[in-house]
Amino acid sequence: MAGPGKIIVTGAAQGIGRAVALRMAAAGACVAVWDTQTDGAEETASLCRGKGARSRAWRVDVGVAQEIESAVAAFEREWGRPDSLVNNAGIFPRARALDMELSEWERVLRVNLTGTFLCARAVARAMKEAGKGAIVNMASGRALAGAAKGAHYSATKGGIIALTKSLALDWAPYGIRVNCVIPGVTDTAQPRGELSDDELYPLGARIPLGRIGQPQDIAAAVAFLLGEDSTYMTGQSIAVNGGAIMIP
Fold it and tell me: Which domains does the chain possess?
């Protein structure tokens, strides 16, 4: 099959991860849905199957290396080698830097940054044998602009941009492409944790294209980076933010 083939999407119980899973399912991919939220993950897998795709949910905490290794092994037993990975799982518990517990700092780094590395490494071992593969990591505009009450989150997302480049250099000889998407403000559960509709949607007035992002906007960029039209791209970061932050 051209395109994503067999794909793992982490953090796919809702939001951007779900939109990516559904976009790939509609394109004919076989979709593994990874998340700690089992009900949401099962719902996403069911929606993927409704689009005619093979799909299954696994409960995986990407902050736990053994859970990742076990899930990859189970994937390979059922479906063979993964062709693509989307590292979307992440957490953002708000806390000001002076008040932040060290345990919270370490947990955010473990899930967002270390989890991205561990998932990428686990699938890359199988991709290396195949001589091809595509990985998309999910950063954030907070990596570029910082975030009040989010030093831990911003640090991890900046790290993901740098990690993407390093893995792309390491794995290019094996035919494995590694790219990154940098979403801007997007209508997901994350900003809704602090903002109502009346607070969230007016943010679009400050964005050049006049609106906040939707999960489908981010999924479209991910689909491009997994597809046939981006086979000469690796180590790149694409910002999808309506022009809110313009990077060279």
Answer: 6-236 (3.40.50.720)
The one-character DSSP state at 186 is: B
- CB contact at 8 A, 82 and 127: yes
> CB burial class (10 A; 0-12, 13-18, 19+) of residue 208?
exposed
Give the tens place of pLDDT for each residue, 66-96: 999 999 999 999 999 999 999 999 999 999 9
Q: Which sign does the torsion angle of CA 176, 235, 120, 118 carry?
A: positive
Report the 10 Å Cβ neighbour count for 182: 24
Contacts of 127 (CB under 8 A, 6+ apart): 81, 82, 83, 133, 171, 174, 175, 176
Catalytic (active site) residue 174: no
pLDDT digits (tens, 9 = 90+) for 191-240: 766 666 767 778 888 999 999 999 999 999 999 999 999 999 999 999 99
Please tell me whether the overall predicted TM-score, pTM, comes out greater than 0.70 for this model. Answer: yes
